[in-house]
Amino acid sequence: MVPKVCPWIIGFNGGMILDRDSGRYESFYKMDGKHIKTIFRFLEGQPYNAHVFDRYEVHTLKPNEDAFSIAKRNLFEVVEDGLEPYYTSTINKLLTSWKKEDLDKFLETHSLSDPNFYMVRSTPTLLEFLDPRVTKGQAIQRLAKQLNLSLENILSFGDERNDLDMLQTTTGVAMKNSNPLLFEYTNYKTEFSNNEDGVARFLEQYILEDTHGKTL
Questions:
Q1: Whether pLDDT at 52 is above 60
Q2: What secondary structure does DSSP assign to 90-135, as a single string?
Q3: Domain extent at residue 106
Q4: CA angle 44-179-186, nearest 5°?
Q5: Cα distance between residue 82 and residue 209, in whole Å
Q6: pLDDT for position 22
Q7: pTM of the model as a whole
Q8: Residue 34 has pLDDT above 70, yes or no
Q9: How far is it, in rounded angstroms, from Cα 200 to Cα 197?
Q10: Overall average pLDDT of the 36-59 stretch
Q11: Is the pLDDT assigned to residue 147 strictly greater than 60?
Q12: 55 and 121 belong to one structural domain
């Protein structure tokens, strides 16, 4: 029997839950756009680009290769507006894109403490700014409560710092190619990386196949 595919998608680092079957989605804990200017001051002089997702568009500071790559991955259109229209509204998150070596160097010397938003690296080239209440873990807890599911029966996979609270909230599995920090907080690790179908192989070995008595 083929397992039923879950129709829910959690996006924006935990700031949105989408029901694919009905098309309904819920957004929560949006960040006040007035903080964009504060973030830009914090990043002043750095080689980054910044983006805001709005429906089916990626609004950006400048339409460079990063902006078009992000838009293509999400099947969105690129809109160049300097993000000023969002200074007086709310946003799911502010996404900044970098070259890996520039972001590595920046994070070695810069940290941020602000009660209105937090900063988290989500990939080697992306740095995100979000409302402090938004995490993947809290979104999973919200959805689990709606569906009457036990958190211990939810399996999650992650590879970066923004996955940490999700992995701790559920039965968490760190990818082989994870940020080393994750290995300190998870009991399980895939034998293969993201680029080697690590999630699929883990599920096949420990969830779909029980002929060898392998269990978590």
A1: yes
A2: EES-EEEE--HHHHHHHHHH----BTTBEEEEEETTEEEEE-TT--
A3: 31-130
A4: 135
A5: 51
A6: 87
A7: 0.83
A8: yes
A9: 5
A10: 95
A11: yes
A12: yes
What Rg, from alpha-carbon coordinates, does the chain have? 18
DSSP 41-81: HHTTT---EEEEEETTEEEESS--HHHHHHHHHHT-EEEES
Cβ contacts of residue 184 below 8 Å, gap of 6+?
none
CA-CA-CA-CA dihedral for 100, 103, 107, 113, to nearest 10: -130
**Are 23 and 37 in the same domain?**
no
Which residue type does 47 have?
P
Give the list of residues 6+ apart from residue 27 with CB closer than 8 angstroms, or none.
12, 15, 16, 92
Confidence class for position 210, pLDDT limits 50, 70, 90: low
What does the longest C-alpha to C-alpha distance in the chain come to?
A: 58
Residue in the block written with tokens 């989408």: 18
Q: Are 157 and 140 in contact, with CB atoms under 8 Å apart?
A: no
Tally the domains of the chain: 2
pLDDT at 146 over 80: yes
